[in-house]
Specification:
This protein has helices spanning 9-45, 55-101, 115-123, 133-136, 154-170. By secondary structure, it is mostly helical. It is elongated, with a radius of gyration of 48 Å.
């Protein structure tokens, strides 16, 4: 088909139905092949027992069948153990991948909610818990420092500092 020409819908439906018919015939053939393979395997693996004969021969056949069943059970158990071991290993590897990749934390959204509303949301509507955090705070009184705003004689203040200077010079 060229790029310029489009397929008509009737042609498209016709081709689709042909493909479905071919696929259906392949599926039917595959089912027949599987059924024949099952019959061939059962004939090979489990031949019909010869039940004619005396009791000793029948007991021997039962022992053989029992031994074959034990062998099959052992194989089945071993296969199940392998599968369980592989499943556990797969789970461990998945956990390692998650640990290595890390968990991405979603961006947090700003929520305006009071402490009371948060507690009510967490505990449910039945519980009435009030949490007035401001009431639990200790009251601290500010101490007002009284600075001496002595606008007194400035000469006296200088003389006091001069005395201190003399103390350091003499020692």
């Amino acid at each position: 088909m060229t790029e310029g020409k489009k397929m008509t819908s009737s042609r498209r439906h016709h081709l689709k139905s042909l493909m479905l018919q071919i696929a259906a015939s392949w599926i039917e053939q595959e089912k027949k092949d599987i059924e024949e393979a099952k019959v061939a395997y059962m004939a090979e693996s489990c031949p019909s027992p010869d039940v004619s004969g005396d009791q000793a021969a029948l007991m021997e056949i039962c022992r053989k069948i029992h031994a074959a069943l034990d062998k099959l059970d052992d194989e089945r158990y071993d296969a199940e153990a392998k599968v369980q071991k592989a499943d556990k290993e797969i789970e461990d590897l998945k956990m390692k991948v998650v640990e290595l990749a890390g968990v991405k934390k979603p961006a947090l959204k700003k929520v305006r909610m009071s402490a009371d509303a948060m507690l009510q949301a967490l505990l449910g509507g039945k519980h009435k818990v009030t949490m007035d955090l401001r009431a639990n705070l200790k009251q601290v009184k500010k101490e007002v420092k009284e600075e001496v705003a002595d606008a007194g004689d400035w000469r006296k203040n200088i003389e006091d500092k001069a005395d201190r200077k003399k103390m350091f010079e003499t020692s």
